[in-house]
Structures are given as structure tokens and as C-alpha cells.
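Instructor's aside before we start: the two examples that follow are unrelated to each other. I chose them only because their records fit on one page, so don't look for a connection. First example below.
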Amino acid sequence: MLQTTLQAIADDTGPATARRFADLASRFLDTSAEGQVPVTSAAGPDALYQLVDEPVPETGLALDQILEQVERSVLDQSIRLSHPMYLGHQVSAPLPSAVWTEVLISALNNSVAVREMSPAGTALETRLIRWMCELAGLPVGAGGTLTSGGTEATFTALLAARAASRPGAWEEGIGEHPPVIVCGEHAHYAVTRAAGELGLGMNRVRLVPSRDFRMDADALVQLLDRLHQEQQDVMAVVATAGSTATGSFDDLERIGTLCGERGLWLHVDGAHGASAVFSESRRVMVHGLRHARSIAWDPHKMMLMPLSAGMLLVRDERDLARAFSQRAPYLFHEGDGERGWDQGPRSFACSRRFDALKVWVGLKRHGTRGIGALYDHLCDLTAELAVRLTRSGSFVVLHQPESNILCFRWTGGSGDDDELDRRNREVREGYNASGQGWITTTVLNGRQVLRVTVMNPRTTTAHLDRLVDGLQRTGEALRLSAAEAPR
């Protein structure tokens, strides 16, 4: 059996096998991009499970059999993010050059936790992080680390903020009077999750009300004044650049200035919107990043990188070292240059993929101007969609889009708000089930709404027309069905 397995490894190493996997992936991307197949399978979870419900194999199978099942049971049944009618969650139609780089990352299999295990990877990630710090306007001495995404980045940032607020917390805990975290009411759930995980408790998060789905800066001033009077320590203020629900941007300039004057740690959750730095016309919305002490940023969102590629940037790289007050002499080596090259001491993960490579390749392939053009294209399409929805007469647009996210509500037919909530859910479910497109939903101001995120550069205005027409037809069919139902 050993000889058989070793021979299979040798056979699979050659270029012929590599081409077969690459051809399968390329065919999936091509058919998705052409848009002639459904966005996703209509099969339910039970049916999909049946496709792979089999005993664990005791002996290896022929590659032909495996690839056939991968195509039939996985690729053909998956959601196609590269389909121009995919307008759903904030997961990108990935840049092909970055997709193919994934093979190199896996072939290297270097762990970027320690320099000796990834000599070239450590150097490249360090340079990439410094590029991103420069783009964000952070000073010399800034640094950061790659993360799995914005949730880990925000958690790590708040861990660093805890170390600054409570230097002994790593060894002694946070004490009897934990500090509070301040954020907008539309902040990502990562903030309250981090508060719970850090031992502060979710009730130690203070929410600032919104104005037009952005943190109300006047209300922030009032809250900070009240907390000061109550002698409540503020561990961090979290602002959002590109909120999950509406893609809205807090006033980073004013909030950043306010935090600077008061000596408060400002963390900016820019997982979605920090990539506006690449835009010629929209980068003004993130000029205030330069005030931040920490920034969460997801290249796997608006830089169109494959999952996962998140990062955390900090104004002072030493803040990350202070956040993780541990030593592992069998792994991390002190005195390895002035800054210390090992990434492990400044991040959660020990086994870390060389994900920096795909981001570096994507930037090298398209440049900052190319990434910026894609960013603007996606945002421009979203603005066009708002116009088309308003013109249709069947929808109410709930905000002017600041990025590539738009929320709206189907208002066809009659009924009270509760009935329209149900109808909007049904419109989304019926439209997605048709396979002609795919959108999401959320709740704004207590009401069910439809939500679109334009994440695919292959999407055009013609696809937007198809979306509006498809949603209208779905809504009208539901209205007629309800009218004909016996009472």
C-alpha cells in the first residue's frame, strides 16, 4: 500500500495532473462569468448531503472519479460568485491572478508565523503591510499582520487596546471595573463579540445612535462627555468605514480628531470600505484613516481577493507585540533584527498561510489604479441601480449608496408594514430560487428590506435591468397569488 501511495503522489506531482485541476477551475470561472447557468443550485441541504453521503474510502480512487465528483457534487452545486447576476453578500468574484496564486501558496506550504519557516514570505508580507500602511496614511513605525478577516482583525485591535488600557490584563485579568467600548449602532457584530471574548462583557459596549446610517458625531461627543463625568474608562472608540448593512462611512475626520484630542484609541473597521483609498473619486471618505490607531481591512472584499485575506494595521507596530504578552522560545526568536521579523508574536494564528502572496500578486498585476478603477466601477453600478429602482415605481430606495451596497424595499400591492415585511422576504426567496439572480436581505429601522452588494466587475447596467425586471415580476406574481387565494 505504501508503494502504491508513493506512486500516486509522484503521478499527481506532474504538470498533466496540475492542468486537469486548473482546467476544471477555469471552466467553472468561465461558465460562471458567461452568466448562462443559474447563479446557484436549486437543491436543498438534504439533497446536497446525499451527493456526498458515502463511507470514508479505505483505498484511493482514480483521479478521474474524484474530479468528476468534484465537478458534479461541488462545483455544479455551489454559488457562482463570478456570475454577473450574483449581487449578494460581501464576498468577491476573485481576481483570476490571485486565484491561480493559491496553488503556489499551497505548494510552498510555508507558515508565516516564524521567519525561519517562511524567509521569503516574511519579507514579502512585511513589505505588503507597509504598502497598506502608506496607502492608509499611517506614519513611519506603523505595521500590522494578515488575519482571516475583519472579525479577527477587530478582535486583535481591541486586544491591543485592552493592553494599552489595562497593561496587566494578560496576567491578572481586567479587574473589577472594566473599561467600555464605544461604537455606532450599525457597527459590525465583531465589536460586541470581542467585548465578550475579552472578558469585558457585551454590556460594556456603548452604542452611539446613527444619523443617515452613520455614527452621529454630535451624539458621540455627548456620550463621551457623560462617560467622563461617570468616571468610566473608554478602552476604544470604533468607527466604521463601509458598514455591513448599507456600506455607509462614519465621519472619520471628525471622529478621529475628537479621539486625538481626548487621547482615545480609535479603531476603524474598514474591512469593506478601506479599499476606497484606491479610488480617485471616493478616497476622500477615508482620509480620516490617518487618525486611526488601528484599522481592520479585508482585501478579500473590495480588492477582490480570494478568501481569506484580511489584515490589521496599527499606528505603532509595538502595540501588537504588547497585545500578545507571551514567549515561546522553541519557536519565536528574540533579537532577530531591530524590529523582530517573526509574525507569530503579533497575531493569533501560529500556522499561518502565506496569503500575503495573492494580495501582492493582485496588486502587482493591476496596480493601485487598476484596483481603484474596479472599486469605482462597482460603486458606480450601485448608484445606477438606485436610479433604476426609483424609476420603476415598485421600490423605495432607503439610502443613497456611498459604496457598492444598496438597501431598498418592494412596495408593490397593498398591505401594512408587517405584511410588506413578509412580502419582501418572499420576493427575495422567490427570486433567488429562480436561479436568474441572487440578492440578500436585512433589517433597517425594524423593517425587512432587500439588499444588493455589487461585487463582480463583469456586472453591467444590462444586468441591473435584468435584476429590477426579475424582482418586479417576482413581486407581481406573489401579489397576484395572494389576491387569488381564498379568504
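Example two begins here.
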Amino acid sequence: MTVTIGRRELLAALGGAAAAWPLAAWAQQSGGIRRIGVLTNLASDDPESQARIGAFLQGLQEFGWAIGRNVRVEYRWVTDAASISRHATELVALSPDVILANANPSVWALQRATRTVPIVFVAATEPVGSGLVESMARPGGNATGFASAEFGTSVKWLELLKEIAPGATRAAVLQDPPSGGASQFAAIQAVAGSFGVALSSLAVSDVGEIERSVAAFARASNGGLIVTRGALTITHRDLIVKLAAQHRLPAVYPLRLFVTAGGLISYGPDIVDQYRRAAGYVDRILKGEKPADLPVQLPTKYELVVNLKTAKALGLDIPASVLARADEVIE
């Protein structure tokens, strides 16, 4: 379905600020109104969606693009994996000038539908290894954008688990293999021995597997949970957070949105910042540059977020050294 933006005040604020721009800015494209497609893997009313799209629209505004004046945005919100291909095909059929896509599954679906329409991706995992681009410096095809993180940062999750739960001798890594979970697991596995932790891989593909895998792991003591980045884990973050609480598992998450949903602690790239930066690439493409010539960029901002309410419920005292490093503490 086609949706504009659900939060009226967001559009009102952007529209008001847009009106202050000089007319010449709106007329920068002689071809009239340009069209941008957006394919994202969160629901339209998800607060994280609102934050991400809001940052993107504000970024566009800074380059002189105003909704309804010189640019139109078509949205497709993907809340289940089965609908990605359909939504991607619908967007391509609208003949947009460029498409903004979130994460690997969305980009794969778009590249199956077109090899000519430019694609700017955000939060992509292993862009070269997963086939999204030919190289980071010279993407080569019709896609470029922003990678979610280097796999070496996955090691940080295990470090955090040991800091907040020193008694943990077992760790389960919940992963979504199609979204790069296997590579994230491999990075953690390489250092698990040095932390004195026995690692278990929980590769899941649906809600039932998530529930069964976490419950089975939690039967033994001294365990902790690490959740990797992936379309499945993000979509079902509320369930994963609930299971961690239910089984009293200290859990480390890859993104802030898990912690705002009630999770314990997260470390990962600031995806909202990537949406803001993506507006710059969209602007350059609308002005004639090609995705093939725009290098894929790594995150410039990482954030550590702690939920003290959840820590208290689990009977954990978060070390002062962790709190001192935190970018955000939820109480």
C-alpha cells in the first residue's frame, strides 16, 4: 500500500521550514517534480520508521528538496518477508528517479526488479560479500549507500555481555542467516574462547524457531543472549525482548530500537544518522551522478544504549564504566 507519513506534525514542521527556502531552490530541477521511492522493513506507524524517515526528509530539505514542490516520495512499508518482492516491483513500476532501500532483503528485491533505477541503501550488511555492489570504493552497478557496520564490531557485543553479566559462561547468538547473521556469528565465535564463553548458534527463520530456540537455550544456567542485525530479528524485536525477560537472560542487542522496546543494552550504528546522510546521495543522483561512482560508506556514529529498568528487573547492576560510556541511559 502507498502511505505518505503517518505523523502529521512531522510533515507540518517540514512543510513550514520548507516554505522559508528561496524559490530558486525549489526550481533547481528544470524537469519538474522528481520522484523518490522508499522501501523500508518497518511498519509506517513504528516510531523507529518515523525517526528514520523524518531524518531523511530533513536531509532532503537541507539540499533544497520540498515534498509537493519539486519532489514526490512514494512509500512501501514491508512488515513480512513474503511481500518484499511485490512492493519492490510496485515501486519500480512507478518509474522513480531513485529508490531509498533499507537493509539487504529490500535491495535484493529491487535489484531483481531493475538494474537501471538507482538505489541508495542504508543499514546494509556486507555489501560486497552479499552481492549488492562490486566493491566498496566503486560499487559498479545501480546501487550504493551505507553499510550497517564492519563485522569486527560484533565482538563488542560479547565484550558487553561479559561486562554486565560476568558470570555468563554460555552465550547464544540469535541470527537471521539471510541478513548476514552467519558472518556476525563467525566474528563472535573467533574470540569467544578468550572470554571463556561457550557459544551456541541460534539460526532462526520464523517466530516459532525464535521461541523454541531461546527456550531450549535458557534451560541451563549462566547463559546470555546476543542478537544480531537482521530483518527477522528487527521485525520481531518485541518478541525477542519479551523472551529474554521471561527466561531472565541478559541480552545484548545490535541497535537502539531493541532497547527502547525494553531490551537491556545495545551497541551499534546510528541508523537514523544513515538515513540523514542518505539524503545527500539521493540529492547527488537526482543531480546526475551515478550510483556506480559513489563509494559505499561505513557508519560514522555508533551508540551504546542501556535500559536501567530492565537491568533492575533482571537483578543486574550495570557497571559504572559501562554507564559512563553510554550515549543514552533509559531509566
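Residues 1-30 have pLDDT under 50 and may be disordered.
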